[in-house]
Amino acid sequence: MHVEILTPDKKLFSGDAEYINVPGKAGGTGILRNHAPLISALKAGKVKVRDLEKKEHFFDIKGGIVEVRNDNVTLLAE
Hints:
By secondary structure, the protein is mainly β.
């Protein structure tokens, strides 16, 4: 799946990943390939992305929104 993590200032991550975990307002949400469509508000916390080479990337966010659609994950973060 393709993942984009954007802030108002810059792009934090853009690439293919096998897994992403986001801090949803109702708790952590893990997203894998072929995930059902989703739009969710995010709270402050860590976003974890595991790329196709199994390398893990971590990003601190203050909140935001995540959208999952057609194997594309777009995260708009504060």
